[in-house]
TrEMBL record:
<dbReference type="GO" id="GO:0004407">
    <property type="term" value="F:histone deacetylase activity"/>
</dbReference>
<dbReference type="InterPro" id="IPR023801">
    <property type="entry name" value="His_deacetylse_dom"/>
</dbReference>
<dbReference type="GO" id="GO:0016787">
    <property type="term" value="F:hydrolase activity"/>
</dbReference>
<dbReference type="InterPro" id="IPR000286">
    <property type="entry name" value="HDACs"/>
</dbReference>
<dbReference type="GO" id="GO:0040029">
    <property type="term" value="P:epigenetic regulation of gene expression"/>
</dbReference>
<protein>
    <submittedName>
        <fullName>Histone deacetylase</fullName>
    </submittedName>
</protein>
<comment type="similarity">
    <text>Belongs to the histone deacetylase family.</text>
</comment>
<dbReference type="InterPro" id="IPR023696">
    <property type="entry name" value="Ureohydrolase_dom_sf"/>
</dbReference>
<dbReference type="Pfam" id="PF00850">
    <property type="entry name" value="Hist_deacetyl"/>
</dbReference>
<feature type="domain" description="Histone deacetylase">
    <location>
        <begin position="23"/>
        <end position="290"/>
    </location>
</feature>
<dbReference type="InterPro" id="IPR044150">
    <property type="entry name" value="HDAC_classIV"/>
</dbReference>
<keyword id="KW-0378">Hydrolase</keyword>
<dbReference type="InterPro" id="IPR037138">
    <property type="entry name" value="His_deacetylse_dom_sf"/>
</dbReference>
Length: 301
């Protein structure tokens, strides 16, 4: 059975201009339960992790100012969110969810976070609706605990936006390989250098996208030899996405997830999946595409 991190505060109230993108955190669990993809017992309530599990990745001064409302106005604008105590509680809990997913995936093979994938957060700052980098903190947690047996981590970032914060955090860490396949002409305008970047032209369709992914990821598994995989399964690659500029169908997005998860399953690699972005005007397009990720996982594990 799948393990899925979810808490009501994932969808905590925000000003009206932020409200729509947050609806998926309420609706996706309801959809998965209603259709019978997972039982209610699959969900667990994440909790805030100990501060050392955050400070292993994030600068202490930044984290202290983040928690106490001490960001400058410019820093706050860069995150895209108005600061609040509830927002910080949400971000810390999301990170805790990904950490717990790591522990569960080591036992069962896979765990998923309804939220997470906050790949624009750097060590010392937040950007692009990302305040704390949950997958980076979880990778650092694995490396800090050698008794867990993870010597090499592969981060597969298939959100439409480059994982710039993650790339920068691990630029000098050979034990973490960062792979980002993203829109070339998309946020962030100043890209960092992942270990492997595959920038895609506007209007890349299913056939081109899937051919490139299928020719790349198996080779990476052979070359990197990871012991653990993080998968950022953003659905902002859809043609319907108002921010993405790519042209995948929901079927193409489903095949993407089935390929990535199937490859991890066949190689007996534990994997943690985080949802990442999705900004289609119709919430049904977002929910259905995200639900396909869970359906693919449930069919394999």
């Amino acid at each position: 059975m799948l393990s899925i991190a979810w808490a009501p505060l994932y969808a905590h109230p925000l000003p009206d201009n932020h409200r729509f993108p947050m609806l998926k955190y309420e609706l996706l669990p309801e959809q998965l339960l209603r259709e019978g993809t997972v039982p209610e017992s699959a969900f667990f309530a994440p909790v805030a992790p100990p501060a050392p599990d955050i400070l292993r990745t994030h600068d202490a001064d930044y984290y202290q100012r983040l928690c106490t409302g001490g960001l400058t106005r410019q820093e706050e604008r860069a995150t895209g969110f108005p600061w609040s105590v509830q927002l910080i509680e949400r971000e810390v809990t999301i990170l805790g969810g990904t950490l717990e997913c790591v522990r569960r995936a080591l036992q069962s093979g896979i765990a998923l976070n309804i939220a997470g994938g906050t790949h624009h957060a750097f060590r010392d700052r937040g950007e692009g609706f990302c305040l704390l980098n949950d997958q980076a903190a979880a990778a650092d947690y694995l490396l800090a605990h050698p008794e867990l047996g993870v010597r090499k981590v592969l981060i597969v970032d298939l959100d439409v936006h480059q994982g710039n914060g993650t790339a920068r955090i691990f630029q000098d860490e050979p034990r973490v390989f960062t792979f980002s396949m993203h829109g070339a002409r998309n946020y962030p305008h100043r890209k960092e250098h992942s270990d492997l970047d595959l920038p895609l032209p506007d209007n890349t369709d299913d056939a081109s996208y899937l051919a490139l992914l299928r020719s790349t990821l198996p080779r990476l598994l052979d070359e990197v030899q990871p012991d653990f995989v993080f998968y950022l399964s953003g659905v902002d690659v859809l043609a319907t996405d108002k921010l993405g500029h790519l042209a995948l169908s929901r079927e193409g997005c489903r095949q993407r997830d089935e390929f990535v998860l199937g490859l991890c399953h066949r190689h007996h690699l534990p994997v943690v999946v985080c949802m990442g972005g999705g900004y289609s005007p119709r919430i049904a397009d977002i929910i259905e595409a995200h639900a396909n990720t869970f359906r693919a996982a449930a069919a394999l594990w």
